[in-house]
Design a protein that fits this description.
Elements lengths: L2 H4 L2 H5 L17 H13 L17 E6 L5 H12 L3 E5 L12 H10 L4 E6 L4 H9 L4 E7 L5 H15 L7 E5 L6 H12 L4 E5 L9 H4 L3 E4 L2 H5 L4 E4 L15 H8 L3 H4 L7 E3 L12 H4 L6 H26 L10
Parallel strand pairs: 1-2, 1-3, 3-4, 5-6, 5-8, 6-7, 8-9
Helix pairs in contact: 3-7, 3-14, 4-14, 7-8, 7-14
This protein binds N-carbamoyl-L-aspartate.
Amino acid sequence: MHLAKLHAPSQIQLNEHGNLKHFVTIEGLSKDTLNKILDTAETFINDNNQLITSPLLEGRTVMNLFFENSTRTRTTFEAAAKRLSANVLNIDIARSSTAKGETLRDTLWNLQAMAADIFVVRHSSSGAAHFIAKDVCPNVAIINAGDGQHAHPTQAMLDMLTIRRETKKPFEELSIAIIGDIKHSRVARSDVAALQTLGCKDIRVIAPNTLLPYGFSEYAEGVRLFNQMDEGVKDCDVIITLRIQNERIESPALASQLEFHKMYGLNEARLALAKPDCIVMHPGPMNRGVEITSSIADGAQSVILNQVTNGIAVRMAVLALSMNGQLQAQGLLDATSVV
Ligand code: NCD
């Protein structure tokens, strides 16, 4: 087999039955796999739109390894694991022995020896979760909670769940715009990949050229690019706004935040150009008055806080599915067992 194929992300993520055992990236996963994550997530939300609890991960240990800052993602992973009855350990990486010169590999092997079943990993280096799943701890389920500018697959899936639940329309029929700092955003990359896989035919990206990735037209096949907001948001069903990732910008990409707000900030007048029932999303953290005005963030069309709740359901699904996939891969669980 061709080497590139052997090491393709989907090969690492799936067991021999085609079930998820790591969740590192959206790329390479099928529409069926993404729909299975969404359908499983829905089973954790009851008819009153409340999250349920379940014993699915009783006796299992989930370790949160956040090498980079996070509020929502780390907390919702913890909430998700606890709702599945797992033991959760939040490892304070900044105070760990990696700060004393221990290699990442040794730190991870030690944590694995403490009977970890799942590692939730956030790292500033693109490819970190993939490296751990392939080369360091293949028998621990590795969930990528954001790696550099590369991928944030659980954010993409919670965005997809929010779109599905709020619009109640098939992805094929939706016009979806992503606005802002595409170049430095792992959320934008994973959202585009998920939307393409789920069949969305009208994906629009709205940004100045300085905030678009190099070679954008090749990476984003089928995606339309707009430099003008008014044209880009016209008749949209969904608008996803993104923060400018200042911590990842080396040279000035913008004249100023004020300038960005004038050109690309989502305000009432621009939202009025979209469909009347268009929903507004943001992965957080939000910079009010820059990419979005407060009246929109707190307005009737905003589903930003629903995204946070849906994040728990999606993370419960990913934790449960990848645990099952790992057990199947190790011959400890029948492949036909379902979550
Ligand atoms: C995003 C991230 O960390 O990539 N936030 C998140 O996970 N909720 C987006 C961002 O930081 O802008």
